[in-house]
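Before a colleague's protein record goes any further, I have to sign it off. Thanks in advance; the entry in question is below:
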Amino acid sequence: MEGLLNSLGLEAFWPVLVAALPLVVIGFVLRRDARRRAERVAQARAAERGLREVHAGAVTLTGTWRALDGNRGYLEDASGRVLVEQGPDASPLTDGATVLVVGCATHQVDDPRAAGYRADARLWVIDTRGDGCFCSPRPDELARASAAARARGSIGAFLFAAGIAVALASYVVAWRAAHEVGVSYEDSAG
């Protein structure tokens, strides 16, 4: 590479710059995407709460899944229960599985399973059909998503830095070659 830059001078800088530009762009896009993913994970972690602490807005819950009709089900633990509504294309969850739910508590409905005066008569409905909302049979999904975002960000930063380094190094070598050729040409002419 240095020989090519030395022989062609500054004319060789532009093809190297064009070759380095995709590294910079891909690195920038990967890094931006990783930041967005990390933000979503941070928002989901900030919304973590117990089933008794659910209120309107974003929630992240972990509990045992109890399947109902269609894509609806109960998420329950020892402290309480909520009703979860999934989108029509959501994969079915196994009854009795430990599930992570990231969604939005929208409203309350009457609990058809409430028995006795001590049971709550109203359930929060958790909607998982929005952007960044999901139901996962892996309770450690947020930790996995956080690790994936960090790895993606690191790769993006490396590619971005490599593209900038290649462009700067090729410019320095080409500039040096162009000025050495100019100086030696003036010396031989004089």
About this structure: Confidence is low (pLDDT under 50) at residues 183-188. Strands lie at 57-67, 72-77, 80-85, 98-110, 122-127, 134-136.
